[in-house]
Design a protein that fits this description.
By secondary structure, this protein is mainly alpha-helical. It has one domain. Helices cover about 75% and strands about 0% of the residues. Helix 1 packs across helix 8, helix 4 crosses helix 5 and helix 8 runs antiparallel to helix 11. Its main location: membrane. Belongs to the cytochrome ubiquinol oxidase subunit 2 family. It is a multi-pass membrane protein.
Length: about 350
């Protein structure tokens, strides 16, 4: 198989991994106002993702590095044309990371509330803007003959893009609520399941509309099958959540997000960024890829490094697999909450 095709799907796999893993991080962050009744609850929520959130974010860093090395012109056009939304995503991720590290440094309630708001902001904004960005990539943006972005920020905020953002926002929110139910026990676990049900109904409506629109615009048997798999997995996840099978519910949400992202990449292939104004200006895997030698070297590096990355991440999740309850929160944290 042509290495350009291989690397297109390798990059797709890393973005799928990022959205599945960092997706529930975003959802947990967005759930703080809904599930965090007091500071102890909020500590429980943050601790569910505390050992893994930074590891989950490395997937997008690796995906971006691969994109730069394998398809440099795609990288250049994407990061120049989408500069503002990607900058906002970066700022939001920085604020979220800072909040996780600094929230517990002082006992004052106002201090913690400020960082809690930053966590919510740093989770909701990327969850929405990633959907907007990928919807634009699939639908196409104005490009000139030099493959440079020829539009404005307004061109990135069309109905399809905004629906894509709403879909990822709601899917990640549901994914996070299911993860909280999987990782906690007691009252917060029950409230997380109820929240996942309510959010899941909204996510289902948005996802069905978005995937239907995608299938209509890019009709093929593969895309139809992937969209159906995403929808069926989402329904199964909500049913599993309703009958208190959190493990199956989380698996169903992971399959839903993976199939939905795979649907977008299948709709995109073999283009990497269609030109909405003139198809002749579109970027494809053939006209933006690196040299065969570069792709070959990358392939050997990936064959050695990727199994190590997957083993390390799997080991991390195994070590921190146990449920977290209010009883696991140190007593001094509870006393600080009332100060």
């Amino acid at each position: 198989m042509d290495l350009t095709i291989v690397w297109f799907w390798v990059i797709a796999a890393f973005f799928i991994g990022y959205f599945v893993l960092d997706g529930f991080d975003f959802g947990v962050g967005m759930s703080l106002p809904f599930l965090g009744k007091d500071d102890t609850d909020r500590r429980v929520l943050i601790n569910t993702i505390g050992p893994v959130w930074d590891l989950n974010e490395t997937w997008v860093i690796v995906a971006g590095a691969m994109l730069f090395a394998a398809f440099p012109e795609w990288y250049a056009t994407l990061f120049s044309g989408f500069y503002l939304p990607l900058l906002v995503i970066l700022i939001a991720l920085i604020l979220r990371g800072v909040s996780f590290e600094y929230r517990h440094q002082r006992p004052e309630r106002r201090w913690k509330q400020r960082f809690d708001r930053m966590i919510v902001f740093g989770s909701a904004v990327p969850a929405f803007l990633w959907g907007v960005a990928f919807a634009n990539i699939v639908r196409g943006v104005p490009l000139d003959e030099n493959h440079d972005f020829a539009g404005s920020i307004v061109d990135l905020l069309g109905p399809y893009a905004l629906l894509g953002g709403l879909t990822t926002l709601l899917l990640f929110f549901t994914h996070g609520a299911v993860f909280v139910a999987l990782k906690t026990d007691g009252n917060i676990r029950r409230r997380a399941r109820a929240l996942a049900t309510r959010a899941g109904l909204l996510a289902t409506a948005a996802a069905v509309c978005f995937l239907t629109w995608t299938v209509v615009d890019h009709s093929s048997a593969t895309i139809v099958v992937l969209a159906v798999v995403a929808a069926a997995a989402l329904v199964c996840a909500l049913v599993a959540n309703a009958v208190n099978r959190e493990g199956l519910a989380f698996t169903g949400m992971a399959v839903t997000i993976a199939a939905a992202v795979l649907t977008l990449f299948a709709a995109l292939f073999p283009a990497v960024m269609p030109a909405s104004n003139d198809p002749a200006y579109s970027l494809t895997i053939e006209n933006v890829s690196s040299t065969p030698y570069t792709l070959e070297v990358m392939s050997w590096i990936a064959l050695f490094a990727l199994p190590l990355i997957l083993l390390y991440q799997g080991w991390t999740y195994w070590v921190f697999r146990k449920r977290i309850t209010r009883e696991h929160i140190p007593e001094e944290a509870e006393s600080h909450a009332s100060s």
